Amino acid sequence: MFGHDRAARARSYGVEPREIVRVDEGEETASCNGGGGALGHPLVYLCFEGKASVDCYYCSCRFAKPGYFAGERATAE
Ligand SMILES: [Zn+2]
């Protein structure tokens, strides 16, 4: 409404709006290096800690299990 949605905030930080990467249901951790190259960052491991999704604190990429997408649909805002 006031023109400062999340995408606009992301742009102001100089990063692309977050991507969502699917991972298998059984995974306990995801690894991310930002895709490598100029947009990359050091390889980090992100623990799900029982949650359906986890966000990379470097590049804001979101790693999500199948349950995340099912839950998103059920609880859509
Ligand atoms: Zn990352």
Descriptive notes:
The structure is a single chain. The protein is of the alpha+beta class. The protein has one domain (18-74): HSP40/DNAj peptide-binding domain (Sandwich). It has two helices and five strands. It is globular, with a radius of gyration of 14 Å. Mean pLDDT is 80; it is low at 7-11. The structure holds zinc ion (ZN). Zinc ion (ZN) binds next to loops.
Defining traits:
3-stranded mixed β-sheet, two-stranded antiparallel ribbon, 2 helices, binds zinc ion, 22% strand, 77 residues, HSP40/DNAj peptide-binding domain, alpha+beta
How many structural domains are formed by the residues? Answer: 1
Give the overall pLDDT as a whole number.
80
Please report the distance between the alpha carbons of the first and last residues. 16 Å
SS-derived structural category: alpha+beta
Provide the CATH top-level class: Mainly Beta
CATH architecture: Sandwich
Give the helix tally: 2
Bound molecules: zinc ion
Low-confidence stretches: 7-11
Strand order, main sheet: write it out.
1-5-4
Strand content: 15-25%
- Please provide the count of β strands: 5
Helix content: 10-25%
